[in-house]
Protein 1
Amino acid sequence: MARAKHQTVLVLDFGGQYNQLIARRVRDEGVYAELIPGDSSIERIRAKEPVGLILTGGPNSVYADGAPRCTPEIFEMGIPVLGICYGMQLMTVMLGGSVRSAQTKEYGKTDVELRDCALFDGIDRSTVCWMSHTDQADKLPEGFSAAATTATCPIAAIADEGRRFYGVQFHPEVQHTARGQEMLRNFLYKVCKLDGDWSMPQFVQETIEALREKVGKGRVLLALSGGVDSSVCAALLSRAVGRQLTCVFLDIGLMRKNEPEQVRAMFEGKFDMDLRFLDESEHFLTALAGVTDPERKRKIIGEQFIRAFERAAKEIGKVEFLAQGTIYPDVVESGAGQAATIKSHHNVGGLPDVIDFQEILEPLRSLFKDEVRRLGLELGLPENMVWRQPFPGPGLAVRIIGDITREKVEILKDADAIFREEIDKAGLNRDINQYFAVLTNMRSVGVMGDERTYDFTVALRAVCTVDFMTVDWARIPYDVLARASARIVNEVRSVNRVVYDITTKPPATIEWE
Ligand code: XMP
């Protein structure tokens, strides 16, 4: 879909852990940024007409075999370049200087002395920065001078103000670098001299106009899951094309308590669209009956989704456009390669094969998750929806260990609703990134009244994380856990024991299956 041309800063990705964060920080300053692999060709780079380049950090040493490099032609483009950590070392070596391995790794908050240059304009000469490196610049390329020093690193930043090339050994994008955001702002506005032409209200307006132009009188179909991305996508498309949009919500019988009703309440009467709720629970639960293997559950659910959509598509007839709530982190090509598949994640990737359509629309494709949330608010979606925690496509199926029955689904829905309610009441919902109940397949002995019971154990899971790749278990206050536990064993039948999962990821995963 055509996007209005904005001044673009390209972030060349060399595989560091903060690389997406750099692009987000740039956008926070009102400048459009895109992340592309560090070794992208000069043609690809030029095609994006960047007005500035940022070279990211990365795990390698620049001299290591196979260490990623960028094309040297970027230094001939006449545009400013900022190298961060590995990016600074790479720039140093590629322009004729050298790097050496230091005696000790410099890691964590570090005192830095800055010298005068445009990058550090208006910032105190003594400040604190976040460091994480072993190698450091040794000999500077011609035209450069040292722009910062630390106790162990005499060249902690470099500048060639004539060519507008800068490098910092520390990470301005992380919050521990006290004045990092101002350094990035200086790069964008004082070095690159940008206008700051990227904002959310403008994005909404431009995207709506572009969607209207593209869709014309055509029909658009969106699979609405009730998650943040598909909901925001639905709201945006509704604004753009109204009733030309058909949203299909499949109730697979494995959603959280009252979830289908909440999704209905969010859209019905508030957004103009053709909204269809299909109760598919019988199909899903029948197909899952007796299945215990986690991967098979996932496969079956994936297949059932496709079948359910085939049925829906027959009713809807031909549509010109299939919309998907794909967001930027889903499409960004990492400079660090691909990770191993631990679980076969469910998504709606199979839909294009069963729906008769001409083209895919992905209006959120350029946005980061926090931008999608801001957009949701801008479009009038409620706060609790845009901050909704992630929920896996296979739903409660991967939170019921062993075989799935309607009875077990009801037990889990009730226990989960209580746990979430108690977390919300304690005001912890923004501090904990994902929290839910799991129905273990274990029964144990208990006593209720004077009676012996032999009932299920519910496990509670709550995690804190930035990227959902590594997580810590949430240190929930004991009294909150106590209230949740007491309510679950009292209010949910067939449960007589509650345990709290205190495992990090890795080695555990967030979901139990
Ligand atoms: P794990 O369990 O792998 O989960 O640590 C990481 C994150 O992914 C979510 N998850 C899924 N999301 N389809 C999804 O859309 C899936 O099949 C799926 N499985 C796990 C999980 O809830 C957590 O946020």
Protein 2
Amino acid sequence: MKAEILALLRESDDYISGQELCSRFGVTRSAVWKAVGQLKKEGYEIEAVQNRGYKLVGAEVYGENELRSRIHTAWAGAELHFYRTTGSTNLLAKQAGEGDAPHGALFVADEQTAGRGRRGRSWQSPQGANIYFTILMRPDFAPERASMLTLVMAHSVACAIRRLTGMEAGIKWPNDVLLEDKKVCGILTEMSVEREYIHYVVCGVGINVASQEFPEEIRDRATSVEAVYGQAVSKGALLQYVMEAFERDYDAFVAAGDLTPLLEGYNKLLVNRGRKVRVLDPRGEWEGTAGGINSRGELLVENAAGEIQAIYAGEVSVRGIYGYV
Ligand code: ATP
């Protein structure tokens, strides 16, 4: 009930009477009073005025109730777990995947002590500033399609940042979301396969929201939403928008069997497009000009001989020849 009260208070500009809340939820006045008291204890500022009722003032308190009050998707984030701190949200989701957690279960943390990126790299996850989450999925498509989910998520995150701020978030193939050519989001997809079938897939996402300082080694290529936007943004609203976008994008992807429905949208956001790139293939690096992606999520790169090669994300990174993009 706390999350529902929060949602009602947030959506109303005026006071909501205790009586109205009682009848909405079919509970007593003292139950409403108790719930409001608990929200205040969590840090919400709720004004209570006699004969008028309750009104939410002040900022959101990022946490379980805030997210529950916002996320009303059918499955993406319908089951939600929030942790003040954890090693890695991918780890939590994988453990839950081994059990009976449902498709769409969402694991969110306010800090990760061992956040990870692709190929064993680390993801800086300081406390309080940013969004770290992993969504668990139980798809029934073939395992080789799972890596495309990373591109689906990159599309959803870029769309969510655009919706919230109006800024031109872009994508660096395959899995980084950028603002002004710097990374604001990284995505790590991992799966468990049993006899040719996907047991579960987890897609972990870190979005730099409020961080203003980054460690030396990533300073030149990392930024945050607020650093570029110049104003505070709501982490709750951003995560809500990501869940709404991802539910829509994932369902379209599954219905089509590949990235066809997202192709145009993804390619529009792709910052590599038309730019010279260096393909960091472990079998040998080469340079070419990036086009868009195909429906399997491979990046089409024209090499020096004028041939178009489709490169698969698994083992390959691309870099701009003058910088990160
Ligand atoms: P590449 O750029 O080679 O394609 P990647 O996209 O596979 O790398 P990820 O796995 O998404 O990389 O992220 C890990 C890398 O991101 C780290 O090696 C580091 O350079 C950088 N990084 C780590 N933490 C952050 C952060 N909070 N914000 C931005 N970049 C970060």
